[in-house]
Specification:
- The longest helix is centred in the middle third of the chain and has 28 residues, at 124-151.
- The protein has helices at residues 14-18, 33-44, 58-72, 86-100, 124-151, 179-199, 224-232, 243-253, and strands spanning 24-28, 48-53, 76-80, 105-108, 156-161, 204-211, 264-267.
- The protein has a seven-stranded parallel beta sheet with strand order 3-2-1-4-5-6-7, sandwiched between helices.
- It is globular.
- Strand 2 (48-53), helix 3 and strand 3 (76-80) form a beta-alpha-beta unit.
- By secondary structure, the chain is an alpha/beta fold.
- The model has no long low-confidence stretch (mean pLDDT 94).
- 42% of the residues lie in helices and 14% in strands.
- It has eight helices and seven strands, in the order H-E-H-E-H-E-H-E-H-E-H-E-H-H-E.
- Helix 2 (33-44) runs parallel beside helix 3 (58-72), helix 2 packs across helix 8 and helix 4 (86-100) runs parallel beside helix 5 (124-151).
């Protein structure tokens, strides 16, 4: 055990710590806005990327992968799978291993909302769907990624997308609380902590992010008065851009965060300060 601080000559290069050169990354919910932004960051930092999403997103996945390969000269592969189905996740990670060789980074980002249908009268089918995708999907993806890391004898980083709704109940124009969404996201936060302990001895770090309102495409179709109300509740008085999500994910994916285990990073424009 070393009990000495590094000398100034021993301090590592920040560029080397943030670099993902040679790393292999998986991003679920790969056709979404947040995944799109993070995939660009990972590729620019040198990582090969697999984007995983449902069959309906296949064309978007292909287009995004073509852009990443052309622009950043990395390998980018589209992968079809359902994160809520164990057999599908196993098959998807088998295909990723065959293509990329291994996995160093998992950004488990797939999730759904049920705007207008998620209140105290939530149907059991909706409740189950929210938990299947948002929470069970996290377990299945994290476990598949960790097993590949262990199989190939190296550690890695797993980042789960929770939400500020894992910490609070969002204010809304009507008195609806979205129990399905907020419960599933709170579960992600606690699952992250549990898996962090499970995998720490294998050199695998598990952490999560809790974004606030992000203009990711998820809000398309939401009425303007609802969006205006949401913005009015944020101290910074705006939604986050996709670019503002990237920093937290890159930090947790890179060697800049090697002492972060079970950490949840909130970036919400001050919403949860209230």
């Amino acid at each position: 055990m070393r009990y000495e601080a590094e000398s100034i000559e021993q301090i590592k290069s920040i560029y080397e710590m943030i670099s993902l050169k040679g790393k292999k990354a998986v991003i679920t919910g790969g056709a979404g806005g947040i995944a799109r932004a993070v995939s660009v960051a990972f590729a620019e930092l040198g990582a090969d990327v697999a984007l995983l999403d449902i069959p309906a997103a296949e064309e978007e996945l292909k287009k995004n992968c073509e852009y990443l390969e052309k622009t950043y000269k990395v390998t980018a592969v589209p992968v079809i799978g359902d994160v809520s189905d164990e057999a599908s996740v196993t098959q998807a990670f088998g295909a990723i291993e065959e293509t990329l060789g291994t996995v160093d980074i998992v950004f488990s980002n797939a999730g759904i909302t049920c705007t207008g249908m998620d209140d105290a009268e939530i149907t059991l089918d909706t409740w189950k769907k929210m938990l299947d995708v948002n929470l069970t999907g996290m377990l299945l993806v994290d476990r598949a990624g960790a097993e590949l890391m262990k199989k190939h004898g190296h550690g890695g980083s797993i980042i789960n997308t929770a939400s500020m709704s894992a910490h609070i109940i969002n204010r809304r124009p009507a008195m609806t609380s979205q129990p399905g969404y907020t419960t599933s996201k709170a579960g992600v936060r606690q699952l992250t902590r549990a898996l962090a302990i499970s995998y720490v001895e294998s050199g695998i770090r598990v952490n999560s992010i809790s974004p606030g309102y992000v203009m990711s495409g998820l809000h398309q179709g939401v009425k303007a008065e609802v969006l205006n109300y949401n913005v009015s509740m944020v101290p910074i008085k705006r939604f986050a851009s996709l670019d503002e999500v990237v920093g937290a994910v890159v930090y947790l994916a890179s060697d800049m965060s090697t002492y972060c285990i079970g950490t949840d990073l909130i970036f919400d424009g001050g919403y949860t300060v209230w």
